[in-house]
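Hi there,

I know you've been waiting on this one. I reran it after we fixed the sequence typo, so this is the corrected version. Both the input and the resulting structure follow.
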Amino acid sequence: MHYSETSCLCGSVKITAENINPNFTVCHCQSYRTWGGAPFFSVKCGNQVKIEGENKLKMYKSSSWASRGFCSECGTHLFYKFKETGEYNMPAGLFPNLEGSKMDMQYFSDMRPSYYCFTNEAKEMITEEIMAYFADDA
């Protein structure tokens, strides 16, 4: 686990994450590809996260189980927060110095468009598996 401090592009929102798992996941869902123009590369940060500048933090409820947070000033994507656990997944790019990072999982792998692919070996979950996993939280 890693400890790190980071901020959005303009510096209005500052984040301290105490327990960053350096193994990253990739989500291929249409929501992420629409939100950021690409799949979402994220690291799990647990719920020991401190956020400064909350007056510039905008939240969007993107599903029945989670919300996305971003800076209302510069638009930087800051996190995906699970409603039930309060845990954060944050863009891997916010933490450029994570040592030993490797791809651990690909979510919505059945939604991955044909114009890109990864050669990393990682577990994969298709839409049906993910919807079943979160069915009780809906």
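Quick highlight: The first strand starts at residue 2 and ends at 7.

Best,
R. S.
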